[in-house]
Amino acid sequence: MIAFATLWLGLVTGTVPVELLVGAEVARVEVRLDGDVCAKLEEPPWAASCELGSELAPHELVAVGFDAQGAAVGEARQWLNLPREAAELEVALTSEAGPPPRWVARLAWAGPGGAAPVEVRATLDGEPLALAADSASFTLPRAGAGAAKLLRVEAEFPGGARAVRELAVGGDVAEEIAQELTGMPVELVGRAAPSSLSDGERELPLVAIEKGEADLVAVLDPGALAALDELAQAGNKKRVARAGIGGVGFGTGGNPGSRTLAVESRARVMVPDGARLRLVWPVAESRRQGEVRYDLFATSPERTAADGGLLEQLLLAAMLPPSSSPPRLADAVALAALTAAQPGRRRAVLLVLGGEPVDASTYDVARVRRFLDRLRVPLVVWSTAPPSPAVAASWGEVEAVTSLPRAESAARRLDALLGRQRIAWVQGRHLPQRLVAGAEGRLRLATADHAATTGGDSSAVHTPATTADDSTIQAPATADLDRPVREIDDDVAVDTNVGTTDGAGPRGEVTTSAASLATAAAAPPQLPAGLPVRALAPFSLATDVRDERLLATVGAVAAALPADFEARFGLRAAAGGTLVLFARGADFRAWLAAEGGGDPAVEGLARHGVAAFAVEDLRSDEVTALMVHELSHLLVRAAAGRQLPPWLDEGLVEELTISRRDARGHTVPGSLRVRSTSRSTSATALPGRARYERTITGPGAALITLLRGPRPPLAELLAMPPSTFTAASGRPERYAVAAFFVRYLLDGDGERWRQPFRAFLATVAAGGPADAAALEAALGVSLAELQGRFDPWLRRTAQTLR
Asked: CA 455, CA 105: separation in Å to the nearest integer?
């Protein structure tokens, strides 16, 4: 009958436009804000505006449809400035006269940052329904009397966000299945069991009261990072050590880079018991969707006490890329409160300040504190320096965590605050600021000691917004603060702001240089004179390496590679050619120069049926990885019969190279080589406290660097000519993105793209185009949409590192 076409996620103030989807049976619409009529509409276009004012507050927005006789025939509702899903979907059903009569559904949606869905699906009792070309409407078959069916509509958005609506449809009736309760965080007073809350006019009996789980959402002032780091390193406690590593490569058989971590086995500043911790980074990325500006703040995934101490986890913010934008602390605190105020969960927001904080927020601190009070979210403020009078005047009670004992005490008080909370449930959906403690006095609101007011909403009068335009503050569904830290070592953060050692690229980089690609049509390389040749089925081997054990390992991997290649990519290649293994790097480089191999910095060559590199100083697994890379180039060329675009050629090759090999020499599909070594660095042996360093090498270390950024977008990567793709500057990142993009197309999103991608590869092997347009056509999705899915998948992949 009626639904909202404009959906407001995140935080919103000021004048908001309201557009509605209205059925033919509706003759008049009233739009009500918090119970008061803000617009009356009697004809299309069904659009109006409502004034929220400049105060941050939860609101109830309701649209009621009336027929020509004045009877209410439909109602739509949305809650503003309250926790909502990262994406939402509205469905408006209306009957249209025949013949034959039918139901028509029209859709509206809102995704993160105003994004449109990448896919919309509708089913009726499990049977797919055909959508219009714009995916914004569809027609339902008319059901017989009493034949109720379940209509399910799903929309998927970039970054993995998803919205679902289910309605019961039967005969001439369509209604949404819903049952609503409101949970309020409270603290018990005395031992007698409480029985009610109040909405200011009547007592609301409690349906239940429970402890529930807890959320702690932290906002970290960038100016507090250095002091937090010093606290984390104080005494013999757990600390984070940053080791600058010169040269981080990717997909290499050699040592492509490493991370050295200094850690200690215990911490005393703990995450509150049973709480899940998330971080909100107070630097926003702004986007525009039409006339609306969306300010997106990076938010981390959930972590718990099992992932390390509180100080160490707060320091994960140090992994974020530097930004020239000033922090917006108050805005981030408001968003953190919205994130914490999930139904049925105990909650608190922790703000950590450093000295005299810089704050460029849209909302002033007083408004934000009033908003937290309305949401019933306690605010705890720490400062790593003695708080100034100005800071205390703005933020209220501020705890100075200027030493480790003070930080430990503050953490215990935070734990106690969450531990005292309970969730009191009442029937119906209520604005949180209108719920207060019941007259019996057996409970109090959890914010009573942590905000300026404790009763009902103290700011009922709205004033006009002072900002130049309407803006919505949102957290991305999958945010850039997700860093591959816990996955490397359970409690350690790593500084990955490192560069290559020189312009030639890092040690261990395996690539065909721009010069060698340019000469690919030249004569085949001549095998080095005097190197014995032996069988390496299905290849041959020319080598002066005398380590028979190593050569046996090389032989097993080479024998398994063609079958692994076909199984992974669905491409059959006539395997053949010669592998040249030099014992000494100097001999390889002299031969490469004589053959016109181009860039002397590269450590491998694959051209015209010859693959070559040197094994000097390499471990066995590094040798096999180099070999897989170079021989896979020969297989790709044999399967396609031509030179492929560099993103695809190197992407296929590197995807196999970064994988592990099993005991029989076969590639383990979708795996990642990660090598870890540790050594003790404790000066004294203390019971239960052993400090050690852990070094991570291999593609796992390179993945950390890739996530640290910057990395080329897919559209740019797929359009690169060979000379740009293989240029020394930024080459590791380009190879990394290509490899993981290929892996995403094979394994990502539940293997959704595997068969279409293999069909694309088969077409390419048959002589078809291999550009971005061909890939989009084969997958049925744009590169922009793939980028939105690929980036969060890449971060989730990093979470699997061990």
From this structure: 43
